Amino acid sequence: MSGLLRSDAWPGFRAPTPELTKTLRVRDLLGMASGIGESTNGSGWHEGDPSAGQLLQSVVNLPVIDAPGKTFFYNNTVFAVGGYLPFLFAGVAEADLSAAYGEAMHTRVYEPTGMKGALIADDPRRLVSNYAAAHGPDLRGKQSVLPYGPVGSFAPIGGTLATLRDMAAYVRLQLGHGVAANGKRVVSAANLAECWKPTSRFRCRRPNSTQIVRVSAMAWPGLAWNNEKFTDDTSLISHTGGIDGFSTFIGFVQEHDTGIVVLNSMNPGPNGSLFGPYVVNVLLSGQFGLNRGGADAVLAASRAAAATCNSRAARGSSRCWPCPTAATSCRAD
Question: How many helices (H) and strands (E) does the chain have?
Fold first, then answer.
């Protein structure tokens, strides 16, 4: 099969243009290079509102920013569509997609991987007895408890509620090339490696990333992963997450058989999203001598972000997210 969305996966797929409808591939959605953009007020900021069917239908109304494979654009809407494709291919009705996705995650990922507490949900209350509360700055810049942000039909882009041990089990699965800590084969090594593989079509450059993030100045997106290299060719494969009041980081360095999971109950802005890179830098510089000085640079970036947030709060603005860290730009190779 060619991997084309319309002919091989979902005959009902409609992209913003007839040409994209015919030519877009599954990997274009998962690799964030579909050529489809989204405004800052787009559907990705309304998670929890649309049904799965409405989410699928919304793609046709998104703007086209480039040809596929030319520009990296982080688009949660098109990625969520990618998560539903196996069920659309199997003939699951749009009204049943969310339930089918949740059931498949439990039986095919959480249970065999050993993620005993993981589930698809927006709010942990009444589901578990021990849970974290979300936190973020209020209009005065003071930390306050936030409502749980709904994910709803956007579950494929980050709808898992999980413990630290659950996510550690998932990272161990990656380090085990598809074999869980309990010895069970959950996914093939080849399929995992395909997801980690850097795309040769474009690279992303983060200004000052050697100081602020953790690695060399060049980063290559994979399929739902970022693959970044140190100067000694050690690779850090990782992904970050953020929603109202929470920031997350998972990653692993195969050359050192080391996995990293950082979960915190801080809003991504002004500095919650920097906590993960700080921990990564402390660990990798202390244990392996990689990217020395990175942790201090992250602290400086955190202080600057907090100062910007406090300044905005003094002017009556609550706009502290996205945090003012280095932007990412990408170009085709």
Answer: 11, 11
Residue 237 three-state SS: strand
* 124-141 pLDDT, tens digit each: 998 999 999 999 887 777
Asked if pLDDT for residue 63 goes beyond 80, the answer is yes
Rounded CA-CA distance 231/202 in Å is 19
Q: In what order do the strands lie in the sheet with 246-253?
A: 258-264, 246-253, 235-243, 226-229, 218-221, 202-205, 329-332
Q: Which of 229, 178, 237, 226 is nearest to 199 (CA)?
A: 226
Nearest to 153 by CA among 106, 107, 120: 120
DSSP characters over 274-310: HHHHHHHHHHHHHHH--STTHHHHHHHHHHHHHHHHH
Q: How many CB atoms lie within 10 A of CB 4?
A: 17
Q: How far apart are the first and last CA of the chain?
A: 26
Q: Encoding tokens for residue 80?
A: 């969520």
Identify the band that residue 331 occupies on the pLDDT scale cut at 50, 70 and 90.
Answer: low
pTM comes to: 0.88
Q: How many CA atoms lie within 13 Å of 323's alpha carbon, on the beta-carbon side? A: 26
Cα 198 from Cα 317, distance rounded (Å): 39
The C-alpha atoms of residue 82 and residue 101 are separated, in whole angstroms, by 12
Distances (CA, A) of 308 to 101, 138, 232: 40, 14, 35
